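Help! Submission page says 'invalid entity' but I think these are all valid:
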Amino acid sequence: MSLSTQESDEDSNYVLVARLDNARTMANILKAVHFKDTAIIFASQNGLKVTVEDAKCVQANAFLQASLFQEFVIREDQVTFKVNLTVLLDCLNIFGTSQVGGVMTALKLCYTGYGNPICLLLEENGVLTDCSLTTQDPEETLDFNFSSTNVINKIIMKSECLKEAFSELDMTSEVLQILMSPDKPHFRLSTFGSAGSSHSDFPKESDMMESFQCEKTQSNRYKISLLKPSVKALMLSSRISLRMDRRGFLSMQYMIKTDDGQVCFVEYFCAPDEMEEIDEDACS
Amino acid sequence: MRFRGKLIDIGCIQHFTRVLITIAKLAKMCTLRITPNKLYFILSERVANGGVSIWCELMQGHFFNEYNMEGVNEEANEIFLELPPENLVRAMKTAQSAKSVKIKLTKKHSPCLTFEVEQPSLSSHSRTVVHDIPVHIIPRRLWDEFDEPEMPDFDISIYMPNARVLRNVVDRMKNLSNFVSISANQNGAMRVKVEADQVTVETHFKDLEYPTWSGPSDIGQRSRNRDPAEFVEARIDIRRLAQFLSGQQVNPSKIICNIVDTRVVHFFLLHDDVSLQYFMPAISL
């Protein structure tokens, strides 16, 4: 470890240097939050956090912890910048998205600091690609003020059974209603589309449930168009934790196993659709 | 004017189909030139439409078991037809397990290329599928427009890198910009680069080889006085390049890339009995 973190002279110009043996690991995790063109990247000693937001109602965060990288050096407490995520993904996948014959694309990411582009160096089988990607001033990100002390209902389950339910959501419905309750039906997803309503129930006794901690019946509606992008994260994940707080805000955390056996997390926050209903819920 | 040919070998039928697919991927309309020894597929686009040109030659003897043709007259023993290559592909798609394919120039309501595909049959009755493809006969006075494009005096002539890697790279770059710069030097290096507002991406290939030209001695003369490390560069339409890389089904072991600095990129595919040349004019900034 001490060898790989040794700085070469050229690296000392950078405030951030990250090396990864398999660039597809990073591309895969970023894909899980790729529902808007731009993303804000926060780098700290812990690693990278990539935040994507939409409509001031939904926020997705992908965490790439420092240990995921073969080398991760940061010379400031925090480095923040905004990039075009679509372009970043195209760069990371420059040698193609599928791995052929176990050949890995090595990545080196460097950033000289505010106002400068980020540089990506990718190498596969001796072919080298360098990318220089402009950065922009980061915007303020949303703070959902979601704290575990205010969480009323929490479920951890295997992603498998939700994959089908989410990928077949009736998109003619404007909202997805999520019910969490200590009583039957425990956990229900409902849509109200032009062809009728549909409900999917997941009883707490199901094999898929790993943990079921629900105190009170809560039923909230979320704009389906805002939740749909989370399917990307769901598809990659093996486990999901769903939490709802007092105000009806939804937190979904996805556990994603990378190709080299590490575990990464992606989380989505979403505000409920109807404010009035939340007030009622909060009072009852 | 007469033309009649017959393909029997299934390998030839499939190979011929692959050539047609390649042409159809590159051009909506093309010219088919029929001569006693060769078939040519020709495209020469007007500058306003991109100005690319294609010149594809097939030795008829390698494909056809029977081949008879009679041109316009004895001095001009050739036939020029204009047709959408996609229609030929459709006709040949039904022939992928055929016993034979006959291709004839016929006059039905209008001039047609008629494909008669004899399908395998278990009984003694033969099953035949017939396709009539309307074609336009190009009159003698317009033949000049379809002369073989002149080989430009290249600044560099180099073998292309691994087709799969290059195809992946160009497919990604296509999302970032409409143009791509291809440059190469005489040290075996090739660079493929796109520049856009938000990003600059450049892929470096090294240790590429050079074809040894046995052609006219003037080819390569321009490169002789040049510093081997110096790059020559041309900027071309990336969509057309991606189309060419992903569409070609001839699968030669090597593709030659010739560059005239800031003027033209010329790709040359040579595979046994087929040769395909693709000229892409450079686009200035």
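Support: the input was valid. A stray whitespace character was the problem, and the output above is from the cleaned input. The mean pLDDT of chain B is 90.
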